[in-house]
Each structure stands twice: as C-alpha cells, then as structure tokens.
Design a protein that fits this description.
By secondary structure, the protein is α/β, with parallel strands linked by helices. Helix content is 44%, strand content 23%. The strands form two sheets. It has a five-stranded parallel sheet with strand order 3-4-2-5-6, with helices on both faces. Helix 2 packs across helix 3. The chain is globular and about 40 Å long. The two termini are 26 Å apart. The structure holds adenosine-5'-triphosphate and magnesium ion (MG). The site of adenosine-5'-triphosphate (ATP) has 13 residues, from helix 1 and helix 5.
C-alpha cells in the first residue's frame, strides 16, 4: 500500500497524460465537491466537455472558483492534465496568493499503457498521447523547483493508494 500525505489546506494539481487515471483517482480519493475538473468547466461554459475551443474560458472559470475555495480555506483538487509548465504555474501562483501549499500528484504511466487505454478512452491521435507523455516525463524533475511543496509520483505498481492529511505547519 502506498500512503501519500497532503497538507490539510492545499491546492492539489493532478498531473498526468490523458488516460493516466486522474479522474478515476479523484473519484476514489476525494469528495466530489473538492474536485474542479477541466472537463466539467468546459461543459459549463460551452455545453461540451470535449470542446477544446472553450479551454481558455473553462480555465478562467476554474481558476476563479479555485481562488474562492482557497480563500474560504477549502482543500481544492484540480483535475486537468497539467503536463505543460505554464498550466501548472497558474496553480502555483494561485496557491501563493492564498497562502496555501501547492501539491502535485503525478500519474506516471508508461506510454504503451497510455496508448492502450486511449483506444477505449478518448481515442485521440497517437502523436497527442506521445507529446503529452514526453512533456510529462520532462516535467517531473522540475515540479519542486516550480514551487510544488509536495510532489507524489504514482506509478502503475501503486495499485492501492491511501491519502492522509496533515496540518499545514
Ligand atoms: P483525461 O485526462 O483524458 O481526463 P484521466 O487521466 O482522467 O484522463 P481516467 O478517465 O481516470 O483518466 O482513466 C482513463 C481510463 O483508464 C479509464 O478507462 C479508466 O478505467 C482507466 N484507468 C484509470 N486508472 C487506472 C488504473 N490505475 N489502472 C488501470 N486502468 C485505469
Ligand atoms: Mg479525466
């Protein structure tokens, strides 16, 4: 069993390629109201969770809600790929603004497994999965430097994960 510790009041970024298991993990480990998902916000602003043209508006709305939650002292989990540094930087900035600890939970899944899952998941073009995977692999070692105070990297061998909460200071 793998235990991971998350500060009681933190902004948790789930980080992983499409199909790596972020939403499945979020459903199994957090209350649904803690989780802000980019799909949900795309649907809210554009009636379609797959509408990529709605990405900018969806994230503007998501970050607004995340800020209000953090201001109220509520644990907030953001379910989006976060494989690009600039997408993560926004979350680190938000966490700093509200003086909470940014935490990263990374889903490190081998490319072959991601390709398999993708066929029954979003069925995206292979190069999309490959590029996201490359970006993720490059990102992992920079996360602490980017400002994430805790970085948990989960691999496919971590089949049973328990989330524990700790007081922030
Ligand atoms: P996206 O970024 O596209 O939303 P995601 O990271 O949220 O993807 P999920 O929707 O959680 O990924 O999972 C994608 C697929 O992989 C689902 O079919 C799910 O059942 C499967 N899956 C999720 N977690 C695991 C796991 N730990 N082991 C095996 N299969 C998994
Ligand atoms: Mg998902």
């Amino acid at each position: 069993m793998r235990r991971i510790t998350i500060p009681e009041l933190s902004l948790v970024a789930l980080v992983g390629v499409t199909g790596s298991g972020k939403s499945t993990f979020a459903r199994g480990h957090f209350a649904s109201t803690h989780v802000l998902s980019s799909d949900t916000f795309r649907a809210m602003v554009a009636d379609d969770e797959n509408d990529q043209s709605a990405t900018e508006d969806a994230f503007a709305a998501l970050h607004f809600v995340a800020g209000r939650r953090l201001r109220a002292g509520r644990l907030t989990v953001v379910d989006a790929t976060h494989v690009q540094r600039e997408d993560r930087a926004k979350l680190v900035a938000l966490a700093r603004e509200y003086d909470v600890l940014p935490t990263a939970v990374v889903f490190d899944v081998p490319l072959a497994e991601l390709r398999d899952r993708n066929r029954n998941h979003r069925d995206l073009a292979d190069h999309v999965i490959r590029r996201q995977h490359e970006a993720l692999r490059r990102s992992i070692r920079h996360l602490a430097k980017e400002g994430f105070r805790k970085v948990h990297v989960l691999s496919t061998t971590d089949t049973e994960v328990v989330v524990e909460y700790e007081k922030a200071y």
